[in-house]
Amino acid sequence: MENDDTLRQVLEKIEYHKYTAIPMLNKNGKYVGTVTEGDLLRYIKEKWFLNIREAEDCSISRVPLRWKYQTVDINCNMEDLVDTAMKQNFVPVLDDADNFIGIVRRSDILKYCYKQSKAGRQKQEEA
């Protein structure tokens, strides 16, 4: 996406490709930033003066969800957690009664794996 594309072009591209963020390039192909869905929503709210009072009458359950996030059970193994996180930015975690108890972010999993790998390398060097 070029940084002089229209808002409509960006919205259509994000919707068609199911992106949550898209890099912006200038005419010379240089990276100038990344625009996210949140950036677009905040801009639209401010630019076109979304009436927050009118939004009080709309239940969030009426909003169509574009993505169904896969969940994991609290007792899942690390392989299942990593496999799920490879497909989404975070993984909702449920207890044995299917109650939501939290999320695990992909970045947390990467950090854990990095620390494990680093610790394994240090053990090998010491041996």
Please report the distance between the alpha carbons of the first and last residues. Answer: 51 Å
Main sheet overview? 3 strands, mixed
Topology as a string of helices (H) and strands (E): HEEHHEHEEH
Count of beta strands = 5
Q: What's the alpha carbon Rg, rounded to whole Å?
A: 20 Å
Class inferred from helices and paired strands: alpha+beta
Number of helices: 5
> What does the overall shape look like?
flat
Strand order of the largest sheet: 3-4-5
**Share of residues in strands:** 15-25%
Any chance you could write out the topology, listing elements then pairs?
Layout: H1 7-17, E1 21-25, E2 31-36, H2 37-47, H3 52-55, E3 72-73, H4 78-85, E4 90-94, E5 100-105, H5 106-126
Parallel strand pairs: 3-4
Antiparallel strand pairs: 1-2, 4-5
Structure, described:
This protein is an alpha+beta fold. The protein contains five helices and five strands, in the order αββααβαββα. The strands form two sheets. Strands 3-4-5 form a three-stranded mixed sheet. Strands 1-2 form a two-stranded antiparallel sheet.
Q: Could you write a compact summary of the structure shown?
A:
The protein has 127 residues and is α+β, with helices and mostly antiparallel strands. The protein contains 5 helices and 5 strands; from the N terminus they run H-E-E-H-H-E-H-E-E-H.
